[in-house]
Amino acid sequence: MFEKFESFVGVNFFTLIFAWANLLILYLVLRKILFHPIKRMIDSRQKEIDDMYESAEKDRSAAEHMRKDYEQKLEKATEESEEILRSAQRRALLKEEEILKDAEAQARRTKERAEEQIALEKRQAMNDIKDEVSVIAIQIAEAVVARDVKASEHADLIDGFINTMGEEA
Amino acid sequence: MNISITGPGVYFTIPILGGIRISQTAVALLAVTILLIVVAFIVTRRIEKRPGRLQVVIEKLVTMLYDLVESTMGKHNLKFAPYIGALFLSSLFGSLIGLTQIFRSTTGDLSVTLAWALATTGMVWYCNIKNFGFKAWLKSFTEPIAVMTPMNIVSEIANPISMAFRHFGNVAGGSVLMSVIYAALAALSSVIFGWIPGLIGTIPFFQVGIPAVLSIYFDLFSGFVQAFVFCLLTMIYVGAANPPAEELPVRNKKAKKQK
User: Fold this and answer.
1) What is the ipTM of this complex?
2) Which residues of A sit within 8 Å Cβ distance of B?
3) Does residue B81 sit within a domain?
4) How far is B143 from chain A (nearest CA, A)?
5) How far away is chain B from the Cα of A7, in angstroms, using its nearest Cα?
6) Domain count, chain B
7) B150-171: per-residue pLDDT in tens?
8) What's the pTM?
9) Is residue B250 one of the residues assigned to a domain?
């Protein structure tokens, strides 16, 4: 079957060249049809996965942002409504006080006026009474004088009496 | 009994250039190349984003290769991964093809392992000269001191020789051992069963089973380990000659450009 045999430990220059050629061909062909396509596929898949994760992360953070935004707005709205309520209460309180004060002042004025009226009427009444009394006193005195009292004797007494009546009343 | 231990047989000689001898090794090399190309073609016929079972396996293997190259040589040397892969497959299947008994292991021929080792050395020298300059490369032989120059030159030459002989020796030694064991088992069979008259006495019963166990070590395991070692050494040598761009000397124009 064989012409002859190579030596067991020996180098055949042509076999060496042949080995190089085979390795080179195998390298070029496998790189073209096996390593590069598979590597590209793995890389592109990896990239796709990375992109997917990245976009998911982006969406998540956007949603988070939105949530925070809404929460803030909600908080602000609550605060505003409370503020409105508080200011309304304050206004109502002020109004109430004002009304009370007005009412009080009016009442005071009414009372003062009434008192003045009363005092005026009292004075008037007093004067009326004084006049009447002096008339009556004079009539009584005339009646008395007409009988047993002499005007010269009791003039001082009558005047004094009338004067004291005004003071005592 | 006699065992003849020979190199690869020569089928025929092409009578040019002083006679090109076409040996078993050359045929086996061609067979391995064709086999690997055909298999690669079949497994990559349909590559899809959603991989099938076969594609998952192939992708896993390719990823392992790239990871190994990256961890040994660095990310900047990933371009060497296809070469390392081709070298590994050539070596592994070159060893395993001997199991067919039709072809002789290609790695059992010193010519082949020497060719691969010289390819590694050639790449190392090329990378060194390209990255550091011819003068700096020559000067590196005189380091750390000038007296070391002969030693450095010897070690530089010894590298490919040791790589070639390590691989060749393991595979060739394994195959020699296997043929010795086969012969020994045949002899044992004829001693024990030889007295049985007729055809039965000539059947070497002990050759059944026993060599298979040994073959797992000498052919499968050894072939795999040697392929791995050879590729690992290649990666280490070439990786050392091809450091990352930021470690290159400033005088290198390419390194400057990259920065």
Assistant:
1) 0.84
2) 1-20, 22-23, 25-27, 29-31, 33-39, 41-42, 44-45, 48
3) yes
4) 32
5) 5
6) 1
7) 888 898 899 899 999 999 998 8
8) 0.71
9) yes
